[in-house]
Q: What sequence folds into this?
């Protein structure tokens, strides 16, 4: 195929733009995360920057920054890379898709920067993970539709008939988030309807328990279709490619895909156990959460078995380390989540620090590690330069692994202690502890968690530095040096 | 029969139906391979042989020349 003098090449212009965004929002989102972790341990840190530095102002910037900034940029960056490669079609072949890709990036970056500004200003709908007000929601719809045009446009001009499993996961992420986002953000701009209040303010279309139901149907599936399916898409491409091993069982990947699609959408009710939603709905949330172990472990085990006979690579290649530990953390958090969704466990765990502990072994261990590995894998191919330092990658890996362990172990202990103290009663049925008693006891664990977060953040800065040095001074590579599976990296 | 009861039956049978579909899909995957109509495992190579110059496993339409030339 192609002409010998002018061979066709993949065009990574848009991938590179989203790669920069991933690193930028990783730094912003996680720095704020560490600040708020220290604020929880040392409350006087709330008052450093007036209203702009309080926990309540910063927390949505952390969650939006890491989920919709860092993770979603990483998803887009990898889509524009993996999509072209497994469909065997270049963005350069379609000027239309190139314009769509660039516009996608421009609208996205504008939206997320406006999100940071408005959240700092305290403009929020107060719905968790859906804090952005309606004008920004409209912008989200625009860049999401542009992403859809890019996905289906690229599929439309593909050379390879079969869509590789990763493409299915990206499509699922696109469709499900579109549906979830639209339904959960049905909101009424108050000034337009009543003539009162700010023009950008809105209230939810739903009321009371219905609002909670829609919110947690959305909230949990944001985990499913932002933190799970597109990350599974990444590992199904990057782990086989980096290791040179085809996926252990392609059939299992298909089966896990449909299992995940069927089950995940029903699990959100577990966020509302012992609340005012109908009991059968709570039970359904619990049951589907338990069933969810099967498709989740189907993917994770498939990934680990892909390394069968090649485990030596775990020692020699830090990218494999990131991905194998990533899928291990995926197994851990997809077992921990269902355990927390069991009603009797939930009675203890709900509202405690065990929940953010669970979220972070998934996000730091699974999502973070997979995106870090994907960016490391893509950088030499995007810039035709050797990765700057293998030893820095190893240092980063161990710092971050220790950070994650400190984070989730401290939150396990803190959460269970908290739950036990809240429910403890004396012989007459009076509560044994007041709220402040729990705060005093939890202080050392909050400090440990903040230190764990700081270690992880240090790793993020090492990662950014390593990528920056690769792009600026990494050894230039010939095309034939890039036509390999293992990413070229300098040993020093 | 009350509406709630109808909903409960509908829910049960719908779940049973979907479980059947899922198991039928597993059977379909393995049977297709056994009969030799389709080899799913070869698609694992899509991630490994992903250079634009490599031949697709299953070409869409006729092989076409790239319409773009690097300047």
A:
């Amino acid at each position: 195929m192609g002409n010998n003098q002018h061979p066709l090449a993949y065009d990574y212009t848009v991938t590179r733009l989203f790669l920069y965004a991933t690193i930028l929002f990783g730094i912003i989102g996680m720095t704020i995360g560490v600040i708020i972790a220290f604020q929880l341990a040392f409350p006087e840190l709330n008052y450093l920057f007036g209203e702009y530095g309080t926990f309540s102002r910063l927390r949505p910037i952390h969650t939006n920054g890491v989920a919709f900034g860092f993770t979603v940029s990483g998803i887009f960056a990898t889509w524009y890379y993996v999509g072209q490669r497994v469909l065997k079609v270049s963005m350069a072949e379609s000027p239309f898709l190139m314009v769509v890709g660039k516009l996608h990036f421009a609208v996205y970056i504008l939206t997320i920067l406006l999100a940071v500004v408005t959240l700092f200003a305290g403009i929020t709908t107060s719905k968790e993970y859906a804090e952005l007000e309606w004008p920004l929601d409209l912008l989200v719809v625009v860049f999401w539709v542009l992403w859809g045009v890019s996905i289906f446009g690229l599929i439309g001009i593909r050379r390879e008939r079969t869509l590789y499993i990763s493409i299915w996961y990206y499509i699922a992420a696109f469709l499900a988030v579109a549906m979830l986002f639209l339904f959960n953000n049905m909101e009424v701009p108050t000034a337009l309807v009543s003539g009162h209040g700010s023009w950008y303010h809105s209230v939810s279309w739903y009321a009371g328990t219905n609002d909670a139901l829609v919110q947690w149907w959305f909230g949990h599936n944001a985990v499913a279709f932002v933190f799970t399916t597109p990350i599974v898409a990444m590992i199904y491409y990057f782990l086989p490619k980096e290791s040179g091993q085809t996926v252990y069982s392609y059939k299992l990947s298909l089966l896990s895909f449909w299992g995940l699609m069927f089950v995940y959408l029903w699990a959100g009710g577990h966020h509302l156990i012992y609340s005012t939603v109908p009991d059968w709905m709570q039970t359904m949330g619990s049951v589907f959460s338990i069933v969810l172990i099967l498709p989740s472990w189907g993917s994770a085990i498939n990934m680990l078995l892909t390394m069968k006979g090649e485990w030596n690579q775990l020692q020699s290649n830090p990218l494999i380390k990131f991905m194998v530990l990533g899928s291990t953390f995926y197994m851990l958090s997809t077992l921990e989540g269902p355990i927390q969704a069991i009603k009797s466990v939930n009675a203890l765990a709900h509202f405690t620090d065990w929940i953010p502990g669970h979220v972070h072994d998934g996000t730091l261990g699974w999502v973070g590690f997979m995106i870090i590995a994907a960016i490391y894998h893509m950088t030499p191919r995007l810039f035709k330069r050797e990765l700057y330092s293998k030893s820095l990658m190893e240092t980063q890996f161990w710092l971050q692994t220790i950070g994650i362990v400190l984070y989730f172990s401290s939150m396990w202990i803190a959460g269970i202690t908290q739950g036990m103290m809240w429910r403890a009663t004396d012989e007459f049925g009076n509560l044994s502890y007041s709220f402040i008693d729990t705060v005093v006891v939890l202080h050392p664990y909050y400090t440990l968690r903040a230190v764990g977060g700081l270690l992880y953040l240090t790793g993020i800065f090492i990662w950014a530095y390593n990528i920056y040095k690769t792009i600026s001074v990494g050894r230039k590579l010939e095309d034939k040096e890039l036509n390999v599976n293992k990413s070229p990296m300098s040993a020093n | 029969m009350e509406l709630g009861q109808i909903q409960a039956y509908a829910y049960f049978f719908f779940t049973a139906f979907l479980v059947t579909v899922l198991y039928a899909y597993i059977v379909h995957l393995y049977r297709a391979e056994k009969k030799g109509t389709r080899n799913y495992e070869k698609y694992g190579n899509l991630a490994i042989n992903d250079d634009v110059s490599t031949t697709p496993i299953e070409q869409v339409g006729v092989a076409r020349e790239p319409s773009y030339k690097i300047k």
Summary: Chain A has 18 helices and two strands. Chain A touches chain B at residues 1-3, 6-10, 84-86, 88-90, 92-93, 158-162, 164-166, 236-237, 240-241, 244, 246-247, 249-251, 254-255, 258-259, 262, 483, 485 (CB under 8 Å).
